[in-house]
């Protein structure tokens, strides 16, 4: 890191000393507000147990650290140095810039009485609603759709492609 990097707001990579990441990856616990040992609100260093991501990028203008685990099919984000966002890449998404390098995930969720629900690209909106109930919001566009749930201060969004197959799941605290 040189003086020009400092001037431009670039930061050293906080993951540089982390070990390699290896599956299996932890359960996403919506009510517990966590991804394994990583709790929403934790600092970046708390994600070290996940191992070094393939992409670690800091966006100064957003004060946002993005850790993208391409081989794990997920990303964790830190806004103002606190864990604030979790996304699972479950199926192809034409809007994802790293689509060809991502190994899609089959994440597991714990949510209320649902202890270990696996998410797969074969799931459709009706499947999600049968498991999680009626969403708080729906969004329908020509090339994608989404179901949004809010539960105990958390938001869970399920995004589907044009064929209504699950492609992505985003989990984050409800914005105040």
Estimated radius of gyration: 16 Å
Tell me the strand percentage band.
35-45%
Order of helices and strands: HEEEEEEEEEHEEEE
Q: Shape from CA axes?
A: globular
Count every beta strand, where a strand is a DSSP E run of 2 or more residues. 13
The assigned structural class equals mainly beta
Determine the mean pLDDT. Answer: 90
Number of H- or I-type helical stretches: 2
Distance between the termini: 36 Å
Uncertain segments of ≥5 residues (pLDDT<50)?
1-6
Largest sheet: 8 strands, antiparallel
Structural commentary:
The termini are far apart. The strands form two sheets. An eight-stranded antiparallel sheet has the order 4-5-6-7-13-12-11-10, with no helix packed on it. The chain has a five-stranded mixed sheet with strand order 3-2-1-8-9, with no helix packed on it. The chain is 7% helix and 38% strand. The protein is built from two helices and 13 strands. The protein has 176 residues and is mainly β. Mean pLDDT is 90; it is low at 1-6. The longest helix is centred in the C-terminal third of the chain and has 8 residues, at 125-132. The chain has helices spanning 3-7, 125-132; strands spanning 28-29, 34-35, 38-39, 55-59, 64-69, 74-79, 82-89, 108-111, 114-118, 137-140, 145-151, 154-160, 166-173. A hairpin with a 2-residue loop joins strand 2 (34-35) and strand 3 (38-39).
């Amino acid at each position: 890191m040189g003086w020009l990097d400092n001037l431009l707001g670039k930061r050293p990579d906080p993951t540089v000393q982390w070990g390699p990441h290896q599956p299996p990856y932890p359960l996403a616990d919506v009510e517990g507000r966590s991804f394994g040992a990583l709790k929403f609100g934790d600092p970046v260093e708390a994600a070290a147990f996940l191992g070094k991501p393939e992409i670690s990028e800091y966006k100064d203008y957003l004060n946002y650290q993005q850790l993208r685990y391409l081989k794990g099919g997920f990303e964790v984000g830190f806004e103002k140095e606190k864990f604030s966002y979790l996304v699972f890449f479950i199926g192809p998404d034409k809007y994802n810039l790293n689509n060809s390098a991502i190994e899609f995930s089959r994440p597991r969720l714990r949510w209320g009485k649902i202890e270990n629900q696996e998410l797969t690209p074969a799931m459709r909106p009706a499947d999600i609603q049968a498991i999680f109930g009626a969403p708080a919001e729906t969004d329908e566009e020509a090339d994608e759709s989404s179901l949004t749930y809010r539960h105990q201060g958390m938001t869970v969004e399920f995004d589907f492609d044009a064929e209504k197959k699950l492609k992505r799941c985003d989990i984050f605290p409800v914005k105040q």
